[in-house]
TrEMBL record:
Annotated region (Disordered), positions in chain: 169-243
Source organism phylogeny: Eukaryota, Metazoa, Chordata, Craniata, Vertebrata
Keyword annotations: Disulfide bond, Glycoprotein, Heparin-binding, Repeat, Secreted, Sensory transduction, Signal, Wnt signaling pathway
Subcellular location: Secreted
Basic and acidic residues compositional bias, start-end: 175-219
Similarity section: Belongs to the R-spondin family.
Alphabetized Gene3D superfamilies for the sequence: Hormone Receptor, Insulin-like Growth Factor Receptor 1, Chain A, domain 2 (2.10.220.10), Thrombospondin type-1 (TSP1) repeat (2.20.100.10)
Protein's name according to its UniProt entry: R-spondin-3
Organism (species): Trogon melanurus (Black-tailed trogon)
Function according to Swiss-Prot or TrEMBL: Activator of the canonical Wnt signaling pathway by acting as a ligand for LGR4-6 receptors, which acts as a key regulator of angiogenesis. Upon binding to LGR4-6 (LGR4, LGR5 or LGR6), LGR4-6 associate with phosphorylated LRP6 and frizzled receptors that are activated by extracellular Wnt receptors, triggering the canonical Wnt signaling pathway to increase expression of target genes. Also regulates the canonical Wnt/beta-catenin-dependent pathway and non-canonical Wnt signaling by acting as an inhibitor of ZNRF3, an important regulator of the Wnt signaling pathway.
Pfam families: Furin-like_2 (PF15913), TSP1_spondin (PF19028)
Main location: secreted
Complex formation: Interacts with the extracellular domain of FZD8 and LRP6. It however does not form a ternary complex with FZD8 and LRP6. Interacts with WNT1. Binds heparin. Interacts with LGR4, LGR5 and LGR6.
Domain Spondin-like TSP1 span(s) in chain numbering: 116-170
Amino acid sequence: VHPNVSQGCQGGCATCSDYNGCLSCKPRLFFVLERIGMKQIGVCLSSCPSGYYGTRYPDINKCAKCKADCDTCFTRNFCTKCKSGFYLFSGKCLEKCPDGLEANNHTMECASIVHCEASEWSPWSPCTKKGKTCGFKRGNEVRVREIVQHPSAKGNPCPATSESRKCIVQRKRCQKEGKGKKNREEKRKKSNKDESKETRQESKGRAARRQNREQRENNNKTQPKKRKAPNKEQNLAPVDTAH
């Protein structure tokens, strides 16, 4: 072993030197060169840092640098995240998205254009005027629909979600709520009063008939029975009309 190479290294190095740092790594670790000032030193990491991708070989695992416009990559030709000012599309970093796609500034990716979609129209509402359904002949009726898919930045805008049209109805008078309620209350009280009056009259009638019946029964018990008067015509003697 070279005098400058040490076997008792720290930080995952299998071999190292005082000047160059790690020269080789322990199994499954990645070797990468880091620049410190004017020199580069070797380090051993469990995963490659941002801007690098890992390659495995039988003798050593290395971290290779991604392309200049790529922040993280899977291989040198397949980027997974772009640096600022670039949009990711199919593993590549582009300054401008292809035709038919639009740039998503939130994810920094090229995405498909999404157009607005609306549901079917609802049935027409009842004919109304100033919020009422009576007291007029000509009014308006409306129908609505909902937005089921909002558009992206370059997508087609959403259509109107409501429509109205003129309508004609058979005119009828509106019943005032307060007056109608008062009339219903008066009718209810009157009905209850009439029912109470009839009930009282029926009760008085039954009580009077019961009292008369009891009085007749008492009179029949207290008065003696009258004897039947003899027939005067039977007691008269026959008159002799021969003389």
